[in-house]
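Aim 2, interim progress. The first record below pairs a target sequence with its structure tokens.
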Amino acid sequence: MGASNGHPKPTGPRTSAMLRQDIERTRAELATSVSALREEVAVAADWREWVRRHPYACVGAAFAVGMLLGSRR
């Protein structure tokens, strides 16, 4: 039976060396996940990427904001 992290579950008692190895592997996996998440957030928050992907929606939104600000005068 496998563990939830994809590595086989040891059948006997775990030694301190095995625990350290598991901790280091988990740290490396976590660092990779955090790095990937940072990249995804940076792309999602980049306004240039939004304009590249949805140019007409961005122009429409700019027009609506311009109309809203222009009607306040």
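The second target in this work package is listed in the same format:
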Amino acid sequence: MSALRHIAVIDIGKTNAKVALVDLATSSEVALRRMANAPVRQAPYPHHDVESLWTFILDSLAGLNCEQRIDAISITTHGATGALVDASGELVLPVLDYEFDGPNGLAADYDAIRPPFAETGTPRLPLGLNLGAQFFWQQKRFPAAFAHATAILMYPQYWALRLTGVAANEVTSLGCHTDLWNPWTAGFSSLVDRLDWRGLMAPVRPARNRLGPILPALAARTGLDARTPVFCGLHDSNASLLPHLLSDAPPFSVVSTGTWVVSMAVGGREIALDAARDTLVNVNALGDPLPSARFMGGREFSVLTEGQPETWSEDDIGAVLARKTLLLPSTQQGSGPFPHQAATWLDAESINDGQRFAAVSFYLALMTATCLDLIGADGPTTVEGPFARNQLFVGMLAASTGRAVVASEATTGTSIGAALLASDQVMAYGKGERIEPPTDRAWADYANAWRVAVEARG
């Protein structure tokens, strides 16, 4: 085949699934397909609708290929998700939705065997957010089905298996608060051997590895060239980070926004991570440990702004800053830097829709600034994903950190990075607008008032 230029990126997010066509010559998205992604709330437990997603993926590949020939396929997905497959590649159990609370029922048993934070960099998280807890629960609750599994796959590599027939795993998903990976030794954690799962773990391949060409039947179904290569793929937040990891000089940080807001620090200050505040050690696409923190900011934004227009005026901003209308954490409890605090509004009587939108945007920025502080972030911060288009968010993030913020121009921050897996070049990457901290002291004063109010709650 000719040089790889147009890369189809399969991007399975928790809220939306996308297939983007990325032009590597311009480092830009030239086409995008999207569908809502909601779990199936049916027996045996809430699970991902992989067959609907599969139809969407194949239809999208076929449609995009009609517009522009696809040269290769890359994959990125949300974390905390994995698949149990048999020798034929079929699921032995549905792919569990990590927001299902079933694994909590075996929390005491799991806590007795999971490795410590010092070994894995993984904090103990609720529900199924620790992937090891999901597999542990499935093995205990469905032993007969689990016994038929011949491979444990991370979610990006499940889709790669369906595309190529090749079973693999990859470190960015293995290292995403799973309890399954030791980032310091670049190997499986003690939990894997304790539960006798090592033989089930598919081989670990680099994210850039070409697993193989698309299966012949899929080539016929989509119209793609039968030689179209499929790359191993990676976790979505690390896909957002990869372009910067390849081109930026440390120190810097990247904030990947979607259902989760994930902050990642490269070359920052040495700091002890606090497992109780949802900080963790991720693993980047080069295999290196990566101090990270996150909260469910996209979900919070959706809940807080549902049914309201996303409009505001300069007067609205001035009123919120002057009155110090504050939203204190957290509307989504159980994770994030304030996992046990309940959301509270201060001085919010009779605010209009524009003022509420401004206060919500400021709250999300201040939560992000807290996450960045917890991981020792330094240097400029690049925001990827939907929040990059929210001027109030990026302005308050600059004000509260005292550092420049770069608002990425990419519609889907993960797609450019995932597409780079198909390139051996370090591409010039269109950064977007650079926002310096506001000169108006009212912004920094607002951020300080928020911090004081949060601290006063204990």
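The two ends are 61 Å apart (CA to CA). This observation will shape the mutagenesis plan for the next reporting period.
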